[in-house]
Inverse folding.
């Protein structure tokens, strides 16, 4: 079976493609850092020849959905983003129909069904609706925030070197765990519905971002909460980003992910660690690897 993965040039596409190949299937990875709009219809049609399954990872809330500014954080053209995602989603689904693709798998975000229709979530809501109405058998995997996305979240909320985030709860997850679920979903019977994936621990968003900036990236931007702070253009309620009761709970903890990252020895020598409960502690007497405790 041939599986085609479309991504925006990030890590998730390559990781997902590797896990699909591990299932014993042929896989092609098509990267479009400029968005699927940057691919010609001919390029898309050629890539879908003899394709049975498409995995679309190209539309995620990230710094690519707006312009990161020093004074106002992430500035987003909401109307432009919605129009662009509608256009590219429509072109891809039409190409899949013409090619006889059997199964469309899309990565979305936990909470898209609860968050107000604004910012990147408005575009995600439109994207999911188009998939559900396409007539193609589909599976939508909604993920919580990935460990690897913490720096982008911080940059999106940075104003004058202060990171402002809403006081919401999150259950971040390892990118590899998401890639494994995407690959398994792609080679299985279509869900004709949605499945959520989340990590094993619950943190406040400010504590998660603060931990990543200090323990992983060795940065010391101050992180504060403000209920008025948007999250990729959307205003959130405290539990909007938490998964439902039937979500798949991955097993990789933040501490395990952090300690397994390349270059952790250099992280240990930086001398301090931030814990995801929000309390700053000196390096001596804290975690033995410079990463947050569970």
């Amino acid at each position: 079976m041939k599986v085609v993965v479309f991504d925006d040039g990030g890590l998730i596409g390559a990781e997902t493609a590797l896990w699909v190949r591990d299932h014993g299937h042929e896989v092609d990875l098509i990267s479009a850092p400029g968005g699927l709009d940057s691919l010609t219809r001919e390029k898309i049609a050629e890539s879908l020849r003899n394709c049975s399954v498409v995995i679309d990872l190209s539309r995620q809330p990230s710094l690519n959905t707006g312009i990161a500014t020093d004074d106002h954080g992430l500035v987003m053209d909401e109307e432009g983003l919605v129009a662009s995602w509608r256009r590219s989603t429509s072109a891809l689904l039409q190409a899949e129909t013409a090619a006889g693709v059997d199964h469309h798998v899309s990565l979305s975000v936990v909470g898209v069904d609860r968050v107000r229709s604004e910012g990147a979530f408005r575009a995600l809501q439109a994207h999911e609706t188009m998939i559900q109405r396409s007539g193609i058998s589909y599976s939508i995997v909604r993920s919580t925030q990935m460990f690897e996305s913490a720096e982008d979240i911080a940059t999106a909320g940075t104003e004058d070197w202060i990171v402002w985030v809403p006081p919401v709860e999150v259950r971040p997850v390892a990118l590899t765990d998401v890639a494994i679920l995407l690959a398994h979903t792609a080679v299985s019977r279509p869900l004709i519905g949605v499945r959520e994936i989340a990590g094993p621990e619950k943190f406040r968003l400010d504590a998660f971002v603060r931990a990543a900036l200090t323990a992983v990236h060795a940065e010391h931007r101050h992180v504060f909460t403000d209920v008025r702070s948007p999250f990729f253009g959307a205003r959130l309620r405290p539990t909007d980003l938490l998964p439902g009761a039937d979500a798949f709970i991955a097993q990789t903890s933040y501490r395990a992910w952090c300690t397994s990252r390349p270059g952790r020895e250099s992280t240990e020598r930086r001398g301090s660690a931030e814990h995801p409960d929000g309390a700053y502690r000196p390096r001596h007497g804290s975690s033995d690897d410079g990463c947050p405790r569970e």
Q: What stands out?
A: The two ends are 40 Å apart (CA to CA). The mean pLDDT is 85.
